[in-house]
Amino acid sequence: MGRKILLENIDKEGIERFDVYRKHGGYTALEKALKLTPDEVTEEVKKSGMRGRGGAGFPTGMKWSFLDKKSNNPRYLICNADESEPGTFKDRYLIEKLPHLLVEGLIISSYALGVNTCYIYVRGEFKYLIGILNKAICEANANKFLGKNILNTGYSLDIHVHSGAGAYICGEETAQIESLEGKRGNPRIKPPFPALKGLYDCPTVVNNVETLAAVVPIISMGGEEYAKIGTGRSTGTKLISASGHINRPGVYEIEMNISVEEFLMSDEYCGGMKNGKPLKAVIAGGSSVPILPAHLILKTANGENRMMTYESLADGGFATGTMLGSGGFIAYDEDSCIVRNTWNLTRFYHHESCGQCSPCREGTGWMERVLHRLENGEGRMHDIDLLTNISKNIEGNTICPLGDAAAWPVASAIRHFRDEFEFHVKNPGIVKNIKHGSLKKYTV
Ligand SMILES: Cc1cc2nc3c(=O)[nH]c(=O)nc-3n(C[C@H](O)[C@H](O)[C@H](O)COP(=O)(O)O)c2cc1C
Ligand code: SF4
């Protein structure tokens, strides 16, 4: 059994309540942290080597050390609970089951950053989480772990829960800041980065839910011990949202030292492919990362076992690799239609583009239209290169990474499954008739 440090107590009856959480060691990491200086807490997080769990994998301790401490303005911590990335559903699970773990992580992190006001930005559709979070915040307040003069240390913190309105782009940190300020969630041009000018133009850190929750075990066990879990620059454990054609979809905590094959086939995790069908492809880190065919997700181009780590998944760059991203693992069996899937994802990105940059605003819509005609048996052979061309012209040419996120799924699907796109052009009659049926039946 893999080691659990975030979800260790998830099955304890009533763990979402303060008294039960406390009985199982809750808030002892906070008590420990408050005996350290804020810089010492940051140092532990640095030593842990933990990389942000929101998608980009930026080292958390380093991000914290960029926060402008010289400014006389207040500093803010924003907990990013937007979680709109297709295929990713770990943060909502963590909040629902272990709200006090997050609240404790927020208090420790705010203390380390010298923050007295913290916001949790919750995706609009997660209404049910807002009550859960507010209850946990009230309980922590009532027990003097939050609010004014926490445990008589002189340190005070307020946590506010803010609901978004259901826009994917509000998960991007600067769009989230705009939205918190009451404006339309349009990403800002960076620099300046939020660490210098963030919420209300004040120094701000934005971190993912899982990142902030993981600060609790880091402080409990110490940064060095945490760094011993996992491999290389992928330290600690990671929550993976597993979905698609597998036997056991769900949220799993993995030590970052297991292979993709073990994750997929072991009964502890995905439990193998549904109905024993062969694996066709995997999106390993949420819909924004490149899709890989079965042979490349299981083994790197050098023939080594692909591991569930930041480095191993990225091995080979985008030619033969992908990214761990937010850990949204979607498995596709042999019957899946890659063209249909790519069209579906592109439809999502087109809908969610905020429209500020022309390559993203126009390019996502253009790709959607081309993919739609390919999927519906009305495509032309040169549409395939046209798609590659459009995606190349979006990538790297936009204000925020949503443009890249829209381009990579299309580019990678064509890179690895070009024959399937060509099949759609050559066989319009078949394609029109197999909207939800088995593509495999026709392609072999
Ligand atoms: C379009 C888009 C959507 C994003 N959505 C989320 C999200 O839902 N949750 C999240 O934590 N990060 C999301 N991010 C990443 C954030 O901008 C930011 O990098 C992250 O919250 C930082 O947290 P971390 O350092 O703990 O990973 C998104 C980025 C983009 C470009
Ligand atoms: S890349 Fe897309 S979502 Fe991001 S700022 Fe530009 S138009 Fe908006």
Describe the structure.
51% of the residues are buried. Helix 15 runs antiparallel to helix 18 (402-426) and helix 16 (358-375) runs antiparallel to helix 17 (382-394). The chain has three domains: 18-228, NADH-ubiquinone oxidoreductase 51kDa subunit (Rossmann fold, 3-Layer(aba) Sandwich), CATH 3.40.50; 232-333, Ubiquitin-like (UB roll); 338-443, NADH-ubiquinone oxidoreductase 51kDa subunit, iron-sulphur binding domain (de novo design (two linked rop proteins)), CATH 1.20.1440.230. The strands form three sheets. The protein has a five-stranded mixed sheet with strand order 8-7-11-9-10. It has a four-stranded parallel sheet with strand order 3-2-1-4, sandwiched between helices. The protein is built from 20 helices and eleven strands. The protein is of the alpha/beta class and 444 residues long. It is globular and about 75 Å long. Iron/sulfur cluster (SF4) is lined by residues 169, 187, 353-357, 360-361, 398-400, 402-403.
Tally of strands: 11
Count of runs of 4 or more consecutive helical residues = 20
Euclidean distance between termini CA atoms: 39 Å
Strand content: 5-15%
CATH superfamily of the largest domain: NADH-ubiquinone oxidoreductase 51kDa subunit
Shape: globular
Number of domains: 3
> What about the largest sheet?
5 strands, mixed
Q: What would CATH call the class of the largest domain? A: Alpha Beta
- Relative helix content: 40-55%
| Structure class | alpha/beta
- The CATH architecture classification of the largest domain is 3-Layer(aba) Sandwich
The CATH topology of the largest domain comes to Rossmann fold
Overall pLDDT metric: 96
Radius of gyration: 22 Å
Structure ligands: flavin mononucleotide, iron/sulfur cluster
List low-pLDDT spans: none
Strand order of the largest sheet: 8-7-11-9-10
